[in-house]
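A quick aside before the break. I want you to see a complete sequence-to-structure record at least once, exactly as it would be stored in a machine-readable document. Don't worry about memorizing anything.
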Amino acid sequence: MDQDTLYAYKIFLNAALPLVKVIAGDVPALAKKFEQAHCIFQVSALNPDAPAGKVATHFTVNNGEWKVCTDCVCTNAMVELQFKSIDAFVAFFKGKMSPATLPKMIGAVEHLGMFLAFMQVLLKMSALLGAAKPPEDEATKALLVKCFFYLLSSGISCLNKTGHEAIHGWALQSPDRVYSWAVNGHPEVAAYIRVKAGKSRAGRGEYRRAMPFFTLRFDSLDSALGILLDTDDMMDATKAGRLIMDGAPEFGAQLGDFMLRVAAYAK
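That is the input. The structure line, written in tokens, reads:
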């Protein structure tokens, strides 16, 4: 497996797929489908080098409450999407759908209703992360920004733990620091990453133990989406006040570079 494929599949397993929980909880029409659910969902890819013969992330749902286990194989999943290889898994989630990349559906007949509900959440996630322009309504804008912030914070941490040369080198040299993403007036979309001596941990929401070392802050959801969807220039946004760097600008450039690296592996 080449390094790019390794980084991509780790990001999909550890940073992108966990967004299923966020979307299923934040979209009322989808949340309703899981109110009475008792099910274990799993997305996996066969890998002969893995101890279990495959890699996976699974979700345990009980009456609308979701628990996510990233990069962890469940042996008794009730509904499973199983890809025949990591290459097929990565290609599928990058939007390269073909007969060669489609997953095998396990347990779908016995739990058809749950399977269809789970697929609706996955399709919603795909539509959000694949958006080319901002959605019309504020609730969906907030959800999209939240998903991107979570993906970026978890993705950077994931690349550090996987040994990405540039990001792990940065983490090794870092004292105990918190980097965060925020939008004025929308604390519900915030995310952060805490880094210290080579270790990192991504978090959701505002970091409250202390003032973050650096925050990439936007004045509105639209301004955030301009950068996240690559329809606005970071320098122009900063000059116009749409993007505020709470901290030294050089750290903003560094964080922006890491964001681009995560985006490249996830698209």
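Two observations worth writing down. The CA atoms of residues 145 and 168 lie 26 Å apart. The chain is about 45% helix and 20% strand. We'll return to this after the break.
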